[in-house]
Every structure is written in structure tokens, then in C-alpha cells.
Amino acid sequence: MTVTLTDIQAARRRLRDVIIATPILPDERLSQELGARVRLKAENTQRSGSFKIRGAYNTISQLTPEEQARGVIAHSAGNHAQGVALAAKLLGVPATIVMPERAPLTKVAATRRLGAEVILHGATFDDAGAYASAIQQQRGLTYVHAFNDERVIAGQGTIGLETVEALSELELLIVPIGGGGLISGIALAVKALMPDVRIAGVQATGCASIPSSLAAGEPVAAPYARTIADGIASSGRAT
């Protein structure tokens, strides 16, 4: 899988009239506690409520007319679901989303309001994914993965472009990790433009698959997902 700065810049052009260039806000309390100038990229103000619309729209907009007519499918605990549903709605594409049975009701309802068919299945993110794959084969749909897709990674990387342009003094960038699509795109963009910036990924202790994956040299699922941060609980098995 290869994503370049050119891919991310092209994604930004596709997204120009679709997304919000979210603000970067000072956090005075953290700045005081840490003795540093801390800024927060407010992607919670993005359309659909998170950054997921970036990768979803960049992906669906590049499908052929035939693929768009057949529709798309995704599995998600909530944020990607809303991003795919909104992107599909904007492009006039039918969308089916499979969500775990324990997905937050607010996110289930929001996804349905955006016009997607929502199917609740399984106890975990992986269970929902397996069922979504089966439906994809049955219906001939196009899969829009939450993170394992070059087009999704390029879309998320547009956050890096916005950050670099806004913060010329940037030294350390901290990025949450669920499946890894967000940090992959951001790191590619930022390192290409500001190679001296240090980038640190953060996972919830209750769902930390990256340390064991790095040690093994291949993806390793966390044995459980025990965290209230459901948006980054995609790399473990819920208990």
C-alpha cells in the first residue's frame, strides 16, 4: 500500500467544497500544566461529527458510475458509519452500514438519519466486519474500509496539510490510533512537509494493539477492548 503527498493533495481538492477546514484551538489549561503551547484540532466540529467524512468521501467519489450505482458497504462502531453515510448521501450513492449490536444508540440513529441502511450484528467490530463482508459478496457492493484503504488514508491526511499550514512552529503532533488510517495519512503529509516534526500515536490502555503489533512485526489484535473511547476501540475484541 503506497500513499504519497500527491495523493493527499488530490484528496484535498476533491474535499474542498465538502468538508470544513476545522479550527485549531489553544488549550490554555493543558498549556499551563505542560509548560508548552498546546493546540487542539477540533475535528469534532467536522461534518458528521468526526474526521471520517474526509476518507469516506475521497473514496466514494472515485468509484466508477457502475460501482456507485450498486452502492457501498462499511462496518463501523459509529464515526466511520456516519462519515460513509454522509458521503454517500452527498454523492447519491446507496449505503449499507453494519454496526455492532452494542454500538452507541446516538450514532446508530445519526447514521440512519443520513439515509444509510443500518444493520446491527455481532458483539464486536470484527464481528460486524465479517458480516459486512458476507453482505458485500451477496449484493456486489463496494467496501469502504475504515482505515485499510489508500483512498481513505489520503483523505484523512488532509488534516496534516491543514495543520502544517496553520502551525509553522509545530514540534510535536499527537494523534489517536484506532485502526491506524488517521495517523498514517497525517504522518505522510506532515513528514513530507515538515520532516523534523515528531509524531506520536496514542491508544487507550484498554485497547492497545500497536505495541504488540510492532513487536511481532505484523498486525496483532488486542485481546479485549475495554475503554469508553469507542472511536479508537476498533483494534481489539470487546468483552
Using the coordinates above, name the CATH class of the largest domain.
Answer: Alpha Beta
CATH topology of the largest domain: Rossmann fold
User: Any idea what the shape is?
Assistant: globular
Beta strands, count: 10
Spatial strand order of the main sheet: 5-4-3-6
Poorly predicted regions: none
The portion of residues forming beta strands comes to: 15-25%
Distance between the termini: 32 Å
CATH architecture annotation of the largest domain = 3-Layer(aba) Sandwich
Mean pLDDT comes to: 92
Name the helicity range. 40-55%
Profile the largest sheet: 4 strands, parallel
Count of DSSP helices?
Answer: 10
Integer count of domains: 2
The chain-level structural class is: alpha/beta
Instruction: Evaluate the radius of gyration.
Output: 18 Å
The helix-strand sequence is HEHEHHEHEHEHEHEHEHEE
What does this structure look like?
The chain contains ten helices and ten strands. By secondary structure, the protein is of the alpha/beta class. The chain folds into two domains: 5-44 and 154-238, Rossmann fold, CATH 3.40.50; 52-143, Rossmann fold, CATH 3.40.50. The strands form four sheets. A four-stranded parallel beta sheet has the order 5-4-3-6, with helices on both faces. Strands 1-2 form a two-stranded antiparallel sheet. Helix 1 crosses helix 3 and helix 1 (5-15) packs across helix 8. The longest helix is centred in the middle third of the chain and has 17 residues, at 150-166. The radius of gyration is 18 Å and the shape is globular. 42% of the residues are buried.
